[in-house]
Amino acid sequence: QEDLFKNVISHAKEYGFIFPSSEVYDGLSAVYDYGQNGVELKKNIREYWWKAMVQMHENIVGLDAAILMHPTTWKASGHVDAFNDPLIDNKDSKKRYRADVLIEDYCEKLNQKAQKEIDKAKERFGDAFDEAQFVATNARVVEYKARQKEILGRMASGLESGNLEDVKALIEELGIADPETGSKNWTEVRQFNLMFGTKLGASAENAMDLYLRPETAQGIFVNFLNVQKSGRMKVPFGIAQTGKAFRNEIVARQFIFRMREFEQMEMQFFVRPGEEMKYYEYWKDTRLKWHLSLGLGKENYRFHDHEKLAHYANAAADIEFNFPFGFKELEGIHSRTDFDLKAHEQHSGRKLQYFDPELNENYVPYVVETSVGLDRMFLAIFSKSLKEETLEDGSTRTVLALPAVLAPTKAAVLPLVKKDGLPDLAQKIVDDLKWDFNVAYDEKDAVGRRYRRQDALGTPFCITVDHQTLEDNTVTIRHRDSMKQDRVDIAQLRTLINDEVSM
Ligand code: ATP
């Protein structure tokens, strides 16, 4: 697993997907740049989301609010007072950690132990195995699960009540060691605010303290009435937005999983008070289906229903994904009640209410939110698509089996040799197809090497122009995953590719 993760990081760099930020100056921790192929993949993921959320829902519209917002926004939202992570330092190694993450990782290990018991039993009993019954009755599995629940419960109440010494005591009681050095010599736990501050204005005296937004959601809330009125929207309706968010994360070691500058894709769905649970269930279900539509494997997703809730929520669940370092949050679905709109009413003195013509009354709508990290989606897709395959002849190939709709380049056109007019003909095909798709032209190296390069970039099709093409206008089209080659007419290419890659 660790090797897989290393491969993901090095492949992403070698093939122009992701580079460390300002690398010539040795990089900036937890900040990354997307290269020539990464930017295309990222754009395609964003579009895939936008299409599913905005284009396919008549009652959802888009928004692009600014990153900088009036500072009172963050007072109202609770971020100034409560957007903190509990941090702890190791006195020997001087390394800093998130106390909650240390404890969660400990619990994940218990989880893995339970899973091992389940897997063993599965093997032993075969088809007759009843997993639900086993989980409910096997003494060891029951014990692991109960232990986890107890630990997470104690952590949550320590964090919630502000009794951070309880959280430290828990870490010591569990014997949690510095993951890098094994030392158990911990400092106190302290709260650390994650927002990046900045200043607006030219002179020091008049400058206004601002924050870079830590989430895109608040831009939606403060525009709720603008959109509702100008778009004559009727509850229930949604506002969707993608954009950058910034958090001064303490732990920043998991590549693009946890970044200090990242992109979110969020949708706030405004509903009648009392109807929120219905829509909460609807969006949990709908969002999971969206993830599954990418074909990365059902077994790689699971729900995690929150028992302890944030100050603004009355129900919350994560969709977790099986990343190279285990199951972790990919998306959050939150029933946020009327907390945000009411808070903005209080702090602004303006009414943020909706007149419901059917009920003939005014109210502050309740909100169900779906929030997914674009970079985390990128990592999920990229890491599950990267494969080392052993072929029939014993050789190996690296293939990035991306969902074709998301692939940065849809087809590469390759002249078999660099002479006899084949390059011109290949270029003509590129010039024709590029109106519809990203296509690449490649004439360097033997054709087998070129196939391998396109496999590693995730290109679903290679189109090879050879001497027969000069005679009958046919080319070979090679499929990335099966490596099968078909002979087809040039005129068929557009339809063939389109069938596979259109969203
Ligand atoms: P975590 O517990 O992993 O820090 P969170 O619960 O704080 O995440 P939310 O505030 O619910 O996350 O943000 C919604 C989504 O934004 C997350 O599900 C995740 O996909 C993404 N996200 C949050 N923080 C980061 C980050 N630092 N880097 C990349 N993506 C992030």
UniProtKB/TrEMBL annotation:
The keyword Ligase applies. It is found in: Cytoplasm. ATP binds at residues 247-249, 257-262, 329-330, 373-376. It is an enzyme of class 6 (ligase). It catalyses: tRNA(Gly) + glycine + ATP = glycyl-tRNA(Gly) + AMP + diphosphate. Its main location: cytoplasm. Residues 104-131 form a coiled coil. The keyword Aminoacyl-tRNA synthetase applies. Its EC number is 6.1.1.14. Substrate binds at R98, E215, F262, E263, Q264, M265, E266, E369, T370, S371, V372, G373. One of its GO terms (cellular component) is microvesicle. Residues 195-415 form the Aminoacyl-transfer RNA synthetases class-II family profile domain. GO terms for molecular function: ATP binding; bis(5'-nucleosyl)-tetraphosphatase (asymmetrical) activity; glycine-tRNA ligase activity. One of its GO terms (biological process) is diadenosine tetraphosphate biosynthetic process. NCBIfam families: glyS_dimeric, PRK04173.1. Belongs to the class-II aminoacyl-tRNA synthetase family. Catalyzes the attachment of glycine to tRNA(Gly). PANTHER family: DNA POLYMERASE SUBUNIT GAMMA-2, MITOCHONDRIAL, GLYCYL-TRNA SYNTHETASE/DNA POLYMERASE SUBUNIT GAMMA-2. Homodimer. This is Glycine--tRNA ligase. It comes from Flavobacterium agri.
